[in-house]
From TrEMBL:
Xref: InterPro entries: Sof1, WD40/YVTN_repeat-like_dom_sf, WD40_repeat_dom_sf, WD40_rpt, WD_repeat_DCAF13/WDSOF1
Subcellular location as annotated: Nucleus, Nucleolus
Signal peptide range: none
Domain Sof1-like protein, chain residue ranges per copy: 354-440
Keywords linked to the UniProt accession: Nucleus, Repeat, Ribonucleoprotein, Ribosome biogenesis, rRNA processing, Ubl conjugation pathway, WD repeat
Protein name: DDB1- and CUL4-associated factor 13
Superkingdom of the organism of origin: Eukaryota
A single MF term (Gene Ontology): ubiquitin-like ligase-substrate adaptor activity
């Protein structure tokens, strides 16, 4: 006679301590759970609704400037240190954890046009309307000491932009030409011109550190190699680009913000057409910055909003605005990928969450599991009409809502007119031009 013994392991159902939650035996056999999908769909719907309820992106406003904030810089080694320069020549150093200004210096006469922290984090550079480049110590002066720059270089023309090399004591400025400077010398090591009267922005590539790019006033974007004596190539667009930013993870990709309300992501190897056209703003885009992961970027616009775009998405996933915020001049994404800082016309710097519904602070293990689970559910059901509608809906200020509507009608009218012209013309006389090819005039090498 066979006797079957019941063998139970107490570890499977007994709590370790009386403070633990009771262990529930689970059988994951799908035949026992016929309503799994409908149950998960309901949970995903609830998670999406809760995400919109908890979306409170605005964290703090840093006030103290007496004129509009014109440029900002992140510290290369410290997360909590942040720099801002205003239109009255004042530079402020902020402690973001305490949300207060720790140091103020009168750096220039007129606008502070650009600022950047040295790659090692020991000093920072500023340029202004007074034609000077100044290098400042990172530490505040001691009691009774004067606030003096470490080094001052007097240029021949006004500088409009500034960026520092990622690994060497070399920096670049732009104005009437793009200059490469060595920190030890008072004259530029190399100057680049290409029949352009002025440049608005210059940026070093963070991966291929010898490459840099600039935006010029003749509607062009020019690429340079520091090791060459002449520029590499330039792409001329239909309207002027204000600033550009390299993708920190993909060496060949950069995005530029344009006057025609769009942003364009290019591959520097194929400049004849952008990879992606990012639309949604209803006025000129003034600045942008990539997240440290390289998967998203944030843009600041004259239409008083901030938008977050996926790097390969044509439309923004998030839009931030407040009643008091005026034209947003400069924007930065923090190095820990959690926060966004914006500087605007009305003298304030605002701190935002990069993920609007994210809970800040320490998460318990069960809380983290629940968050990850609901995130996966939202991804699984993201294309269902009901969930997509709730997830994508954003409340916009009345004027932006009406401008968006107006732009849509104008674009549709242009498209309809083009269709009609093509219909009543000889076949092939009016070619179909894609949205990506419309905005590039020519590429010069």
């Amino acid at each position: 006679m066979k006797v079957k013994l019941l063998s139970r392991n107490p570890d499977d159902y007994v709590r370790e301590t009386k403070l633990d939650i009771q262990r529930v035996p689970r059988n994951y056999d799908p035949t026992l759970h016929p309503f799994e999908v409908s149950r998960e769909y309901t949970r995903a719907l609830n998670a999406t609704k809760l995400e919109r309820v908890f979306a409170k992106p605005f964290l703090a406003s840093l006030d103290g400037h007496r004129d509009g904030v014109n440029c900002m810089a992140k510290h290369t080694k410290s997360l909590s240190t942040f720099f801002s320069g205003s239109c009255d020549g004042e530079v402020k150093v902020w402690d973001l954890t305490k949300q207060e200004c720790v140091r103020t210096l009168q750096a220039h006469e007129g606008f502070v046009r650009g600022m950047v922290v040295r790659y090692c984090g020991t000093s920072f550079f500023t340029v202004g309307d007074d034609k000077t480049i100044k290098q400042w110590k990172m530490e505040a002066p001691g009691y009774g000491e004067e606030e003096e720059p470490l080094n001052t270089i007097l240029g021949k023309t006004v500088f409009t932009g500034l960026d520092h090399h990622q690994k060497e004591g070399v920096f670049a400025t732009c104005g009437q030409q793009v200059d490469i400077w060595d920190e030890q010398r008072s004259s530029p090591v190399r100057s680049f011109t290409w029949g352009v009267d002025s440049f608005s922005s210059v940026r070093f590539n963070p991966v291929e550190t010898e490459l840099l790019a600039s935006c010029a006033s003749d509607r062009s974007i020019v690429l340079y190699d520091m090791r060459e004596s002449a520029p590499l190539k330039k792409v001329i667009m239909t309207m002027r680009s204000n600033t550009l930013c390299w993708n920190p993870m993909e060496a060949y990709y950069f995005t530029c913000s344009n006057e025609d309300y769009n942003l364009y992501t290019y591959d520097m190897r194929h400049l004849d057409r952008p990879i992606t056209v990012h639309m949604d703003h209803v006025s000129a885009v003034l600045d942008l910055d990539y997240s440290p992961t390289g998967k998203e970027f944030v843009s600041a616009s004259f239409d008083k909003t901030i938008r977050i775009f996926p790097k390969d998405g044509g439309h923004s996933r998030e839009v931030y605005h407040t009643k008091r915020m005026q034209h947003v001049i400069c924007i930065k994404w923090s190095a820990d990928n959690k926060y966004i800082l914006s500087g605007s016309d009305e003298m304030n710097i605002r701190l935002w969450k990069a993920n609007a519904a994210e809970k800040l602070g320490v998460l318990g293990p069960r809380e983290r599991e629940a968050t990850n689970y609901s995130q996966k559910l939202k991804e699984k059901f993201q294309h269902h009409p009901q969930i997509r509608r709730i997830a994508h809906h954003r409340h916009l200020p009345k004027n932006i809502y009406h401008q968006t509507k107006e732009l849509r009608i104008m674009k549709e009218a242009r498209r309809r007119k083009e269709r009609n012209v093509r219909k009543h013309s000889r076949p092939g006389a009016v070619p179909v031009v894609s949205e990506k090819e419309k905005h590039v005039v020519t590429v010069l090498k």
